[in-house]
Fold:
Amino acid sequence: MPTLFTRIINREIPADIVYEDDRVVAFRDINPAAPVHILIVPRTEITGLATLPDEGDHLAILNVAKLLAEREGLVGGYRLVINQGPDGGQSVDHLHAHLLGGRKMKWPPG
Ligand code: AMP
Structure:
């Protein structure tokens, strides 16, 4: 059974895709928590950080986050978040990083 994000990657479910390459796909979060809220998702179905392999598509996430932050004009800064498991607030079991920006972030996160 493909994950929700694999179905988005395969264009079976619509999403506002802003970037893709051979390793990752990025699209705008359907329920944005900031003016810019983009999910960066490896094409490979990794459940989350807890099952991360040593190598793979996910290694592209940081550089794509940097690229998209530049494209989105986030000159004042931004935040990259990965939620892991129920206590981390993960709701979709396909590894993804949230790129959040366009407002001042609070610390610590809730
Ligand atoms: P997490 O809670 O860290 O697993 O993040 C999952 C994110 O996926 C949430 O911020 C949701 O708003 C987002 N999301 C769920 N369904 C969709 C969808 N169909 N298109 C875009 N984002 C989605």
Remarks:
- The radius of gyration is 13 Å.
- The helical segments are 4-9, 61-71, 85-88.
- The chain has a mean pLDDT of 98.
